[in-house]
UniProtKB/TrEMBL annotation:
PANTHER family listed in its UniProt record: ABC TRANSPORTER ATP-BINDING PROTEIN ALBC-RELATED (PTHR42939:SF1)
Lineage of the species this protein comes from: Bacteria, Bacillati, Actinomycetota, Actinomycetes, Kitasatosporales
Gene Ontology MF annotations: ATP binding; ATP hydrolysis activity
Pfam families: ABC_tran
Source organism: Streptomyces purpureus
Descriptive protein name: ABC transporter ATP-binding protein
Amino acid sequence: MLRGMELDLPPHRLIRIQGTNGTGKSTLLRLIAGIDAPTEGRITGRPPRTAYVPERFPAALPFTASGYLVHLGRIQGLGRAAAAARADEWLERLGAGAHAHTPLAELSKGTSQKVAVAQALLADPGLIVLDEAWTGLDTAARGELDRAVTERVAAGGTAVFVDHDPRRLAGAPDAVYAVEHGRLTAASEPGPAPVPRVRIVASGPLLPDELPGAPSYTPGPDGTVVFTVAASESDALLRALLTARPFWHIHQVGAAGAPTTTGRPR
């Protein structure tokens, strides 16, 4: 049972909720999203467009992936054409475009979860609530969801999330709260070992649409671009840059925060 909780969720805020299993994290998120109503107290100021992504998406619905998203988009106030366009956009962005016309009941768990994420992002929600929404997603889709969450917050939205991985969006939350014994307390972020990151300096005429590993990138000297990505994703990012059309020249590769290895551009 949750009791005595007060939580303010202003715009431009990313909030992490943590706690052990069974402490009430999911209950709290369902209350925030408006899925459940409190037996005491009240929740005020919830944005008109509030989106919720559960850990498990109920896929046994009589829709195709695209049809379901268009239906949800219409409910959220989008016109049919806009809903269809946004459905296509998010399915492609999450790597599920090939399943647009597949019945929901025939989708794999991972693809079903991509549909669940897409429905939450269709109409630019003012509040997005994510209950272990990354579970079941492949690496590329997890990175895309990370990016989508930060985009929503930057655009003025509020995001509240629970995830079992302490590295999820590490360093990004504006506040972290712990649910313990039915109460909510301010907490500091867990301190996992730093994720090794790689710095890639490259140049090319056109930035590829898809960049594996959700890298950050900034302009570098002499028209180059400096990419920073998790070391585990660096090979995939290099491959994407070298096989892009037109392809990119790789000037330097090295550990982020350390001297780079300089070589001839390829």
